């Protein structure tokens, strides 16, 4: 919502319905009219794309939770206009200690984590972004404790 003052329009998407409900309520509370929200499937990203593509796509903690991360990022490459940006933050669980993999498995089994959790490495995420037609402008682990990787890329 805080970006709305700096953008022509914002189209927010989420894989689950609850965050969409929260976002709509917050937009109404703040009287922000130039935002729309939509629940989608990670499998197809069927969106109403503006002519020429989106100027930018931002995503937070998504790539490691979709069924096919590389296909998902390639689809994002199709949605962003040439010269447009992809800004992503992803926990790179594959760079964590191997002890976390069984812990994540147990937490999933207990129903306290998503059913899909990929243990990606930072280098893998960068390669996916580059393979989707983006030039990686910056990539860094900005929180070593969480392994959170920030990637800023421009569509070529």
Describe the structure.
This protein has 156 residues and is α/β, with parallel strands linked by helices. It is built from four helices and six strands, in the order βαββαβααββ. Strands 3-4-6-5 form a four-stranded mixed sheet. A two-stranded parallel sheet has the order 1-2. α2 (69-79) links the parallel β3 (54-60) and β4. α2 (69-79) packs across α4 (122-131). It is globular. The mean pLDDT is 87.
Output the keywords.
globular, alpha/beta, four-stranded mixed β-sheet, 156 residues, two-stranded parallel ribbon
Query: What overall form do the CA principal axes indicate?
Result: globular
**How big is the Rg?**
16 Å
The helix content is 25-40%
By secondary-structure content and strand pairing, the structural class works out as alpha/beta
- Please report which band the strand proportion falls in: under 5%, 5-15%, 15-25%, 25-35%, 35-45% or over 45%: 25-35%
Q: Major beta sheet, specifics?
A: 4 strands, mixed
What is the mean predicted local confidence, pLDDT? 87
Low-confidence stretches: none
Distance between the termini: 28 Å
Oligomer: single chain
The total of beta strands comes to 6
Query: How are the strands of the biggest sheet laid out side by side?
Result: 3-4-6-5
**What is the count of DSSP helices, taking H or I runs of 4+ residues?**
4
Query: Could you spell the SSE succession in H and E letters?
Result: EHEEHEHHEE
């Amino acid at each position: 919502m805080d970006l709305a003052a700096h953008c022509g329009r914002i189209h927010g998407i989420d894989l689950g319905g609850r965050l969409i409900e929260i976002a709509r309520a917050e937009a109404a509370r703040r009287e922000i009219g130039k935002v729309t929200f939509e629940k989608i499937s990670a499998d197809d990203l069927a969106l109403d794309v503006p002519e020429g593509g989106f100027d930018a796509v931002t995503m937070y903690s998504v790539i490691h939770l979709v069924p096919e991360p590389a296909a998902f990022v390639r689809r994002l490459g199709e949605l962003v206009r040439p010269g447009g940006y992809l800004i992503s933050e992803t926990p790179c669980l594959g760079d964590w200690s191997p002890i976390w993999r069984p812990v994540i498995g147990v937490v999933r089994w207990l129903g306290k984590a998503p059913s899909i959790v990929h243990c990606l490495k930072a280098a893998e995420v960068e390669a996916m972004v580059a393979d989707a037609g983006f030039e990686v402008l910056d990539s860094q682990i900005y929180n070593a404790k969480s392994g959170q990787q920030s990637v800023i890329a421009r569509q070529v």
